[in-house]
């Protein structure tokens, strides 16, 4: 750069500014390319500035649980207590759940779909998640009313809850009315509630409506035992009710519209560990994944995500 030029060098930008710029890059690039550019960029990536929001939900669906755990520990540690949003799928380790909870002092948004957390551990972790306002526990089959009650009692600022299920995952249950009643009795500040395919009936949903008076969206798609009187629903003037009718996503404008997931995490499972795995581990991970994986496992999401609500005329909330 010539003398007298008013423009600052890229490597002189403060870490906060660099972090804002790096948000426009994929996570793969931030982890594997940026640190090699210069020392100041490496310092920014190694510090908390880039890790206040961590979204590896799409990536984690196709990863072994031990790799997901390793990634979470790496990124959450870098956040140094400044983590505000975390989205990850299929967390299977109790230790990882508690690791997340122990670093949740600034956490506002937590998405843990398909995770293996159970009632006992959710009760223990809930007291450490008190700052959360947006919680997604969809497809978590090992939790129930006990967990939701603990969540309601501890997460006093919770305004959005996603508890969407797959019909095949609840086929052996007689009822999940106890979950609806736990929500009704402990979560009065809810504004957005999604309980698609939960096995609930009309009376339990009425309990939710009467106790969660700030509700703006209630999603009961696939809750076939729910039959709310139209006049009764009209009494809740701020409420948008979606369901129980299901709109097939294939009737919409293609599969690209059938998911609310960001493509920013679409990197391969082994890329984040460049320089951190030995050759044997790298080879093992590389052999396990390919870009041509059968997408059938993701079909379950197509029928419950945001596209159907948009079809119903509602602009769904995004994660904060």
From TrEMBL:
One Pfam family matching this protein: F-box-like
Organism of provenance: Penstemon davidsonii
InterPro entries assigned: F-box_dom, LRR_dom_sf
Gene3D superfamilies associated with the record: 1.20.1280.50, Ribonuclease Inhibitor
Protein name according to UniProt: F-box domain-containing protein
Recorded superkingdom: Eukaryota
F-box domain mapped to chain residues: 16-56
Coiled-coil features, chain-numbered ranges: none
